[in-house]
Specification:
Layout: H1 3-26, E1 30-31, H2 44-49, E2 52-59, E3 62-64, E4 72-77, E5 81-91, E6 104-109, E7 114-117, E8 126-135, E9 141-152, E10 195-199, E11 232-234, E12 239-242, E13 245-256, E14 262-266, E15 268-270, E16 279-281, E17 285-291, E18 298-305, E19 312-316, E20 324-329, E21 337-340, E22 349-356, E23 361-365, E24 368-372, E25 382-391, E26 406-416
Parallel strand pairs: 1-2, 3-9, 11-14
Antiparallel strand pairs: 2-4, 4-7, 5-6, 5-8, 8-9, 10-26, 12-13, 13-14, 13-26, 15-25, 16-25, 17-22, 17-26, 18-19, 18-25, 19-20, 20-21, 22-23, 23-24
Length: 417
């Protein structure tokens, strides 16, 4: 089988990222609907090529005085580009700036849409003006259509604040120092599904029987694939298990790639080639809980592969877009979904799942459905699972800065059928 055919879907995605950068560089962007602040209009040849940003949903419409609440903004654009900043603004009757905190930076907006969740804030009782806003690459600010936000008083005492979760270390831990997460009990957000296969990483790594860690047909040369903008050289010793957590490590290795770049030994697990040979299939729901990496160049993913195709990306992540996940169906291609939320962050645990429906692939983050593509995988699809930590070579996302190891932790991988 020609190597180009084996990795064509992931090459295509990389090219798509390159076009995104070209859009962002123009600084000529339009918005849908009226804004609160005056912004010079885009005219002439620039206007003909400028993507249009449309606000799909803005919440909340109501709040309770003294109760901390987050805002949610869903939007899409006519073509992919990277907004420098996205947030939710609030003004009182005097025009005082009372914006929700926690703006998103360098957020990719595409036709498939993206959802942004702000940080929480409180407001006194009253009526406010609320609106989404974004900043283009040239630094110009754009306001989306405004709506009324009503903050009411209540006679019922505000509930006690939810205790803050135990802080997760902000530095990349070594395998032995990775904190044991509180593992959620097995359950599927898709109704009628039962746990059929899992690895909780509680008793060592079952290489050979359950997983293979040093080769895959998704890599052009079996254990490395520089054509896909990767520095990876698969090494089964770069995944270790301790305290119920699998730690994936990427570090400079001794190999040189065909393009002359130094390879990085990387952690990789696939069910392909194992004695179990487990495959997910149409109708399954697969889920993992991971601690997203912080190191420059990190490229973690949960995805599927079989016979030169079969690729569904449950997620891809790049720390240069720290609050964003990429969700993509390459089997029946649809526009990639770029999902952003306050729960997505470097060095933070997040649960990500995918339902492989015949007519629609559905993605879940922390048990909540965030995207349905309306394409699906077809009635007879099946593929092997892959969970890995790749390293970017620098073409579309930054390469590693220095030689310090990069790590990612995984709590479990589960499949429900």
């Amino acid at each position: 089988m020609p190597a180009a055919r084996r990795r064509a879907p992931r090459h295509a995605r990389s090219s798509h990222r390159g076009r995104n950068a070209a859009f962002a560089a123009t600084g000529a962007l339009a918005i849908s609907g009226a804004g609160l602040l005056g912004v010079p209009s885009v005219t002439g040849a620039q206007a003909a090529t400028a993507p249009t940003v449309t606000q799909d949903r803005l919440a909340p419409a109501t709040m309770v005085a003294g109760k901390a609440t987050t805002a949610s903004l869903a939007l899409h654009s006519s073509a992919c580009f990277t907004a420098k900043t996205v947030g939710v603004g609030v003004r009182d009757a005097r025009g005082t700036n009372l914006d929700f905190p926690g703006n998103a930076s360098n957020l990719q907006i595409c036709p498939g849409g993206v959802t942004f969740t702000s940080g929480a804030r409180t407001l006194p009782a009253g009526t406010y003006t609320q609106f989404g806003f974004w900043q283009d690459s040239a630094g110009a600010w754009h306001n989306l259509p405004a709506q009324q936000l009503v903050v009411s008083t209540t006679a019922t005492p505000a509930p006690s604040p939810t205790p803050a979760p135990t802080a997760t270390p902000t530095t990349a831990p070594s395998p032995s120092a990775t904190a044991t997460p509180t593992t959620p009990a097995p359950s599927s957000p898709v109704a009628g599904k039962s746990l059929t296969w899992s690895d909780e990483f509680n008793s060592g790594l079952s290489l050979g029987q359950r997983w293979v860690g040093d080769k895959s047909t998704s890599y052009k040369y079996g254990n490395h694939n520089p054509d896909d903008n990767k520095l990876d050289w698969l090494n089964k010793n770069n995944v270790s298990v301790a305290n119920g957590v699998a730690t994936f490590t990427a570090a400079p290795g001794s190999h040189t790639l065909e393009n002359g770049k130094q390879a990085w030994d990387t952690g990789f697990l696939t069910t392909e080639g194992s004695s179990e040979g487990f495959q997910v299939k149409t109708g399954d729901y697969a889920e993992t809980r991971v601690k997203l990496p912080a190191g420059s160049g990190a490229w973690p993913a949960l995805w599927t592969w079989k016979n030169g195709n079969g690729e569904i990306d449950s997620f891809e992540y790049h720390p240069d877009n720290p609050n964003l996940l990429e969700l993509t169906n390459h089997v029946n291609p649809s526009t990639p979904k770029y999902y952003t939320d306050g729960a997505i962050a470097k060095d933070q645990w997040v649960t990500i799942g995918t339902y492989y429906g015949a007519t629609s692939v559905d993605w879940y983050v922390n048990g909540v459905k965030v995207h349905s593509d309306g394409k699906g995988v077809g009635a007879n699809w099946s593929a092997y699972l892959i969970l890995n930590l790749s390293v970017c070579a620098g073409k579309y996302h930054p390469a590693p800065q220095g030689t310090a190891p990069i790590t990612m932790a995984a709590d479990y991988v589960r499949v429900y059928r």
